């Protein structure tokens, strides 16, 4: 991959520690290294498999500093190791302590969704540009699936329908006082990023316990589907991930919303109850990456 480095990336093996949640919902800590580094992220090698848009804590033990990063895309998938592109949530973070060459001026790139063929003008970050150069594709959010889809460069013009929809949406948000993220990505406007997982959870309510499977989670809560309906606002206790006959820890939560997706099947969102305040920072009662 070093042969296809972008102008803004540097080949560099930096020892790091990664804290995160894998595709099966298991929390992990892994000592690993970077393959390349950029101002706003890196490509890293991991034995754990991750979902696009999930979040990690990346720590540089050499300087005893860490930063939260987002999984942008999978670059290489081998039997024993995967290489992922990650981007720091705070682009001003200087975790590598490296002086990079002067950054080239950013230009918009016309990209097309492989599912709905929508075309958008995208201002790529440095790590996104590196991934696109290496793979000739990039995972990005698209409303057609309400999740990440595969995008490629195109010579087509920006889709007129999408441009009109976005313009109308932005005008409605301005009228209601809702803030729009610079990227225009609706997922960026959510308070917490959601990570797809396949982990069991246990919901305890009115003396009854029900084991359910999470569909996704964030540091603020999770979503599950079950045959049992819980009304919105119902106080509950949850343990996630949940292991039968294991040392599970239950925390306080609320049913944030409920939707019947088909007869007898209910999708429900859970929000952890804010319970601990420490030096002005509110912590949720739910699981965090550093609770490993």
Task: Describe the fold and architecture.
By secondary structure, the protein is mainly beta. The protein folds into three domains: 2-88, Beta Barrel (Thrombin, subunit H); 108-189, no CATH class; 197-291, Thrombin, subunit H (Beta Barrel), CATH 2.40.10.220. The chain contains two helices and 20 strands. The chain has helices at 126-135, 160-176; strands at 10-11, 15-21, 27-38, 41-46, 55-60, 65-77, 82-88, 108-113, 119-123, 138-142, 147-153, 195-196, 200-205, 208-218, 221-226, 235-239, 251-262, 265-272, 274-278, 281-284. The strands form four sheets. The chain has a six-stranded antiparallel β-barrel with strand order 2-3-4-7-6-5. Strand 3 (27-38) and strand 4 form a beta hairpin. The two termini are 32 Å apart.
**Shape category:** globular
Work out the helicity level. Answer: under 10%
Beta-strand segment tally: 20
- The CATH topology of the largest domain turns out to be Thrombin, subunit H
Compute the number of helices. 2
The portion of residues forming beta strands comes to over 45%
Rg from Cα: 21 Å
Give the name of the CATH superfamily of the largest domain: predicted glycosyltransferase like domains
């Amino acid at each position: 991959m070093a042969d296809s480095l972008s102008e803004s990336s540097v080949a560099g093996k930096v020892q790091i520690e990664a804290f995160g949640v894998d595709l099966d919902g298991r929390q992990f800590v892994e000592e690993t290294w970077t393959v390349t580094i950029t101002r706003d992220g890196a490509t890293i090698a991991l034995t754990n498999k991750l979902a696009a848009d999930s979040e990690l804590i990346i720590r540089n033990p050499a300087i005893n500093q860490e930063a939260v990063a987002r999984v942008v895309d999978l670059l290489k998938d081998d039997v024993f190791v995967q290489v992922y592109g990650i981007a720091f949530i705070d682009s001003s973070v200087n975790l590598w302590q490296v002086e990079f060459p002067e950054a080239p001026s950013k230009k918009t790139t016309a990209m097309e969704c492989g599912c709905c063929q929508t075309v958008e003008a995208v201002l790529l970050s440095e790590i996104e540009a590196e991934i696109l150069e290496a793979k000739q594709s990039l995972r990005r959010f698209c409303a057609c699936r309400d999740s990440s889809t595969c995008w490629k460069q195109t010579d087509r013009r920006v889709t007129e329908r999408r441009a009109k929809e976005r313009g109308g949406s932005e005008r409605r948000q301005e009228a209601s006082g809702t803030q729009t993220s610079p990227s225009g990505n609706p997922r960026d406007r959510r308070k917490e990023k959601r990570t797809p997982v396949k982990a069991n959870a246990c919901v305890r309510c009115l003396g009854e316990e029900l084991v359910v499977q999470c569909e996704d989670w964030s540091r603020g809560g999770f979503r599950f589907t079950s045959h049992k309906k819980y009304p919105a606002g119902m106080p509950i206790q949850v343990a996630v991930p949940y292991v039968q006959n294991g040392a599970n820890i239950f925390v306080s939560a609320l049913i944030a919303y409920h939707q019947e997706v088909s007869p007898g099947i209910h999708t429900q969102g859970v929000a952890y109850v804010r319970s601990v305040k420490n030096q002005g920072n509110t912590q949720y009662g739910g699981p965090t990456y550093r609770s490993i």
